[in-house]
């Protein structure tokens, strides 16, 4: 049971953790802070939090667990600001989508309290945001990855693991670097690729006409290009190394496909396409028809 | 009303046209041919066709309308084979995903009968194939693009338009070149991009581990990488010019994003991502939540 939980950033991610822990009876009081006063009040009125803090200092001073659910670019300044106000033994954890940068920022900002910091990433979300988008079951049956480092206190890690399990999530531990590569491969790179395609089509004079004939396949492929631009800028900037490494490989592989099309090398294409299909079919066995898979 | 319709390739696309026209009472008799005898018999037993032809010559000799629903690579040999057996005034049309190559093949194979050829492309499909996958409502509320050329006979064009409208499809006319670019942009290129990503991940030693953490965003993005490898090889090879042109542009745009990440140029990223999001949101206004859009 958590006596007081402080949520910094009471939007979809932070608000949903609060609601899930309240529902599970795992927290006595939730105090929340968001940069905008309107958002803080809204979170209170919606019952997402129990108490509003008007500063980060106020939010964290009595908290036993502090959850940072702010955009990636805000992690470092928030960590710097809260460092001197955190009480002895309090646990700090976060929900950032890339871990190396947050860990570096936490190490520098928290000093000897760094062992109480548990880097985390709940792999869940919807395209909506703000406290009104929060709901108690967001994390149910979703994965939460924790990326403890050498200095991480074992009790703090166990407490954060337990907290997430109470929301219905499956909790996994991973190396910081491995997390960042895995997420770059399955989330960050696909977003960049989809943004790039839709951005390229949006620049065409005949964009409307082109998109009129797009069907199911394109709709699914490009859905992630509808994600929040600021959030994705932050992720690209903060997970730079992992994303650039994979982009480099992606370019090289795409060049090979390009050469095969140019040289009418059907065998090469079949080989790549078959391996891709097999990997996807093995991993994602989805029942039912796909509408318009050809287009 | 069509007296006799010949379907060359009685799979999902050909079989569904037959079933739709029978349901609409628009055809007296459907004769079908597929390369494999087993498939021909299956189509007959399932009632997808009324009569089996054991050769292309036999299939087309009495037909008033001939529909080619064979893989792209088979279009040319099939056109060559049927040319001398087609009766006077018969209309020939096809369902190929790229039009320039089929038009060139038809011009060369059909000679003075080329004016009776109406190039077409029903933008519909599922991931299933074969006569057992065919169903009468496949084309309902889907788009069919016809790409008549200068030589195309106006009556033949009108008859094919009418035929598709009877299936419940919306029929549009388009230039051959424009069709091929539009489809390359919204279908062929996305498939190549998705195949390339999943193929690249499939080659990693930690592929299983990587894909274990992939969530909704990746699932949607990569769904098209589950499409038939042979069909997509054929499309890549036959729509070569349009695909290569767009791939070239895609590479250039991706290089700019790469440079922006490298140089931590957040403004550039925001600009591309916002334009992409806006284009997609304007075109595809999907109600409801997207599960895991962040990942």
Please give the largest β-sheet of chain A. Answer: 6 strands, parallel
Domain unit count of chain A: 2
Q: Based on helices, strands and strand pairing, what is the structural class of chain A?
A: alpha/beta
Q: Which sequence of SSEs, written as H and E, runs from N to C of chain A? A: EHEHEHEHEHEEEHEHHHHHH
Label the overall shape of chain A. elongated
Round the mean pLDDT of chain A to the nearest integer and report it.
93
User: Within the largest sheet of chain A, what's the order of strands?
Assistant: 3-2-1-4-5-6
The percent of residues in helical segments of chain A reads 40-55%
The rounded distance between the terminal residues' Cα atoms of chain A is: 51 Å
Largest interface, with counts of residues having CB < 8 Å to the other chain, equals: A-B, 101 and 102 residues
Which stretches of chain A are low in confidence, meaning pLDDT under 50 for 5 or more residues running?
A: 286-295
Tally the helices of chain A: 12
List the keywords.
homodimer; 295 residues; Rossmann fold; 6-phosphogluconate dehydrogenase C-terminal fold; six-stranded parallel sheet
């Amino acid at each position: 049971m958590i006596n007081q939980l402080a949520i910094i950033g009471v939007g979809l991610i932070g608000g949903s953790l609060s609601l899930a822990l309240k529902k599970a009876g795992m927290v006595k009081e939730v105090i929340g802070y968001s940069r905008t006063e309107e958002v803080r009040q809204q979170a209170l009125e919606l019952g997402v939090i129990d108490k509003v803090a008007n500063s980060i200092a106020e939010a964290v001073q009595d908290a036993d667990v502090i959850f940072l659910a702010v955009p990636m670019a805000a992690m470092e300044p928030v960590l710097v600001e809260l460092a001197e106000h955190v009480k002895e033994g309090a646990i700090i954890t976060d929900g950032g989508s890339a871990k190396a940068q947050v860990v570096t920022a936490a190490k520098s900002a928290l000093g000897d309290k760094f062992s109480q910091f548990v880097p985390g990433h709940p792999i869940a979300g919807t395209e909506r945001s703000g406290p009104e988008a929060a709901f108690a079951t967001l994390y149910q049956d979703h994965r939460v990855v924790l990326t403890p480092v050498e200095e991480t206190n074992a009790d703090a890690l166990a407490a954060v693991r337990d907290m997430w399990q109470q929301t219905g999530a499956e909790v996994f531990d991973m190396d910081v670097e491995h997390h960042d590569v895995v997420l770059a491969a399955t989330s960050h790179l696909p977003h960049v690729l989809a943004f790039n395609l839709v951005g390229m089509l949006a620049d065409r004079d005949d964009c409307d006409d082109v998109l009129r004939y797009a069907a199911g396949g394109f709709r699914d492929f490009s859905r992630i290009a509808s994600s929040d631009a600021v959030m994705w800028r932050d992720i690209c900037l903060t997970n730079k190394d992992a994303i650039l490494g994979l982009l480099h490989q992606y370019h090289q592989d795409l060049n090979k496909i390009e050469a095969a099309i140019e040289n009418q090398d059907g065998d090469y294409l079949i080989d790549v396409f078959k391996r891709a299909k097999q990997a996807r079919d093995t991993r994602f066995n989805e029942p039912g028809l796909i509408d318009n898979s050809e287009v």
